[in-house]
């Protein structure tokens, strides 16, 4: 059994998460950042928080992975950094001996650092990170995102961990 955990500040990573969810009949949890507010100045504050690799107030605060063989963790790239909401959730959870696939979306080319940060945070909590991927979303329609995601998923060997 698998679980998709995603923090979504926009619609594209949420859409991609639902594609994964439908394909593998996963449970899905969307992490909410309780401190994130809309507006230009608030976006600047959120970007600074991500840039400083900080934590934030979230819901849910913790997730029990007892019944899951595979956990998929995703968030958009925020200035090339992990989102504070996903960073907080990882810090609050026990991933001991769990297989994890990490993913991110990006409008640019600066997403590799996000994967490194998610991997380090998950490794520190006992995860076995088995794969990772990046979906470039800049100027992509939902149809293009669907095609790109469906093409990518078989390459991840997800079925080996279910």
What is the strand and helix layout of this fold?
Elements: E1 2-7, H1 11-24, E2 27-33, H2 40-51, E3 58-59, E4 70-76, H3 84-92, E5 99-106, H4 112-124, E6 128-136, H5 142-152
Parallel strand pairs: 1-2, 1-4, 4-5, 5-6
Antiparallel strand pairs: 2-3
Helix pairs in contact: 1-5
Can you walk me through this structure?
- The chain has 162 residues and is an alpha/beta fold.
- It has one domain: Rossmann fold, CATH 3.40.50.360.
- 36% of the residues lie in helices and 24% in strands.
- It has 5 helices and 6 strands.
- A 6-stranded mixed sheet has the order 3-2-1-4-5-6, with helices on both faces.
- Strand 5, helix 4 and strand 6 (128-136) form a beta-alpha-beta unit.
- Helix 1 (11-24) crosses helix 5.
- The longest helix has 14 residues, at 11-24.
- The model has no long low-confidence stretch (mean pLDDT 88).
Give the total of domains: 1
What name does the CATH topology carry?
Rossmann fold
**CATH top level label:** Alpha Beta
**Oligomeric description of these chains:** single chain
Please estimate the helix content.
25-40%
Tell me the series of helices and strands, N- to C-terminal. Answer: EHEHEEHEHEH
Q: Which architecture name does CATH use?
A: 3-Layer(aba) Sandwich
Q: How many DSSP-defined strands?
A: 6
Overall, the morphology is globular
Structural class: alpha/beta
First and last CA, distance: 5 Å
Give a quick account of the main beta sheet: strands, pairing sense, barrel closure: 6 strands, mixed
Helix count from the secondary structure assignment? 5
CATH superfamily: Flavodoxin domain
Strand order of the largest sheet: 3-2-1-4-5-6
Q: Average pLDDT, to the nearest integer?
A: 88
Strand content: 15-25%
Low-confidence runs (pLDDT<50, min 5 residues)?
A: none
Radius of gyration over all CA atoms, rounded: 15 Å
């Amino acid at each position: 059994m698998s679980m998709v955990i995603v923090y979504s500040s926009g619609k594209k990573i949420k859409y991609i998460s639902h594609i994964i969810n439908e394909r593998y009949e996963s449970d899905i949890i969307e992490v909410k950042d309780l401190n994130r507010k809309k507006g230009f100045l608030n976006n600047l504050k959120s970007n600074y928080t991500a840039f400083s690799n900080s934590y934030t107030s979230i819901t849910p605060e913790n997730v029990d992975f007892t019944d899951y063989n595979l956990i998929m963790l995703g968030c958009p790239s925020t200035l090339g950094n992990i989102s504070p909401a996903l960073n907080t959730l990882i810090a609050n959870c026990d991933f001991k001996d769990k297989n994890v696939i990490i993913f991110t979306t990006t409008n640019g080319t600066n997403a590799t650092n996000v994967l490194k940060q998610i991997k380090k945070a998950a490794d520190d909590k006992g995860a076995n990170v088995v794969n990772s991927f990046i979906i470039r979303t800049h100027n992509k329609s939902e149809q293009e995102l669907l095609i790109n995601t469906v093409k990518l998923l078989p390459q991840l060997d997800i079925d080996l961990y279910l």
